[in-house]
Amino acid sequence: MTSNNIRVRFAPSPTGYLHVGGLRTALYNYLFAKKNGGTFVLRIEDTDRARFVEGAVENLIDTLKWAGVDFDEGPGKEGSHGPYVQSERLAIYRKHIDLLLAKGSAYRCFCTSERLDQVRKEREKLKLAPKYDRHCLNLTAEEIEKLLQTNTSFVVRMKVPEATTIAFRDAVREEVEFASDALDDQILLKSDGYPTYHLANVVDDHLMEITHVIRGEEWLSSTPKHVLLYKYFEWELPLFAHLPLLLNADRSKLSKRQGDVAVEDYRTKGYLKEALVNFVALLGWNPGTEQEIFSKAELVEQFSLDHVNKAGAIFNIEKLDWLNFEHLRKASDGEVLAMLKDEIRKSPYSANRYSDEYLLNVIRAMRERMTFVRDILDKSPYFFESPAEYDASVAEKRWKPETAGQLKQLAEEFSGLDRPGKEQYEQALQQVAARLNIGNGSLIHAIRLAISGVGTGPGVYELLEILGKDESVKRIHHAIANIQHE
RNA sequence: GGCCUCAUCGUCUAACGGUUUAGGACGCAGCCCUCUCAAGGCUGAAAUACGGGUUCGAUUCCCGUUGGGGCUACCA
User: Fold this and answer.
1) Contacts of A156 (CB under 8 A, 6+ apart)
2) What is the ipTM of this complex?
3) What is the DSSP letter of A261?
4) Chain A 74..113 CB hits on strand B (< 7 A)
């Protein structure tokens, strides 16, 4: 499928679940790759052993698969640039660290974390940038040898040049510049032998021949360190594209505290993958047209880094709900049926009590009235069980002293009908109303309350038809016996 | 605090110096339709953060202010 050399990657940390911001980043990478005939790589950045969560990788892959954001190379889909899990690439990083050490672009640091804390505090007091004081940069070869011999634990730091400017081009932010003096001598190799993000990321992006690094804006500040590393290794720079962050309603970075951030949370809440993908695609990107509803294929067709925004975007659920409604109505009756059966299985109702034909009728009646498939159960439980109680405010308004007698006549009329449809119910009701010399409306509202228990929902005749004659008549009699007016 | 970065309706966004009484969408309000609720149709309220420049002309370019966000870990 790859007609050129464009290669992008999504590089999450397996710390639990896929964040919706991560989904957005993965999606943009995916769309960019598909649009340009490139390759989309999934790489697992598990260099922090303390934060590793069992099963997180599987969960990540499963969630990506659910969302339809498929990768071309990655764990379980080995290509020519593997392995795709960083903890399996330790020897590679070690080799590159040695290279840096030999060139003098990096140095060993034997300082204890206690000393580091102290240095930090002192510099903070002096209002200086919180940087390492380069104590170990001045160690002699003999001193280093001695420390190594005694197995003193150490880290490897990058040697940042003094008084220069590090500039790079960003596809969404154009030129970005940093003064090297503001940069810390970043740790590249931790004392446990694992690389930090900065080293592993640069080495892997190069080795995996990544051409475009599309990632969240939280990485913008550390990009000069990465640029420096590319320079030390004498590697060609990829094109960076830093995406605006997804925000909470108060404009802080989207966090768990203020709502659901895990893709699986939205999945279990009943959001369609089509809606979620459509929604996050629009958070930070626009097609340049007035189109709002997109299929995945349309997103691929229209996606471009040129239309990526700079400012952070608030994750606004209301629009997501609307998109869910829109995508749900695009689903076929059969697709909704399958989803509805799933919901019924999770509900107190018994799954095989209702025929497909019956459920399909319910779906057609509720089509324009649901945002989630679950709404069918929540908003119209009367399709699944007789009303146990009757809405008091509706009863007060629609159930008059004479209503019981009128409905009794109507029920009798219905009983005499032979396999009635909507039209027959309507005719019967009109006849009874005429006979009683009352408007159709008073009968209609009363009967709705009687058969559904509530005052809202699909048309009454449709309700009667779906429920069937026997069930409807039964419910009417039950209502007559149980609804009190005033 | 320092560095980086961002700034159009409540929210997501359009506008790439003049075609703009700043457009669309979500949400909100009203009207129509109607047996209710929806759906649908129509209408409405709602924004260029502020101050200086540059220019015949600034939402658009420059500077500053203010405000927001990110980073500032042997986390990614």
Assistant:
1) A97, A100, A101, A106, A107, A108, A109, A187, A188, A189
2) 0.96
3) -
4) 111-113
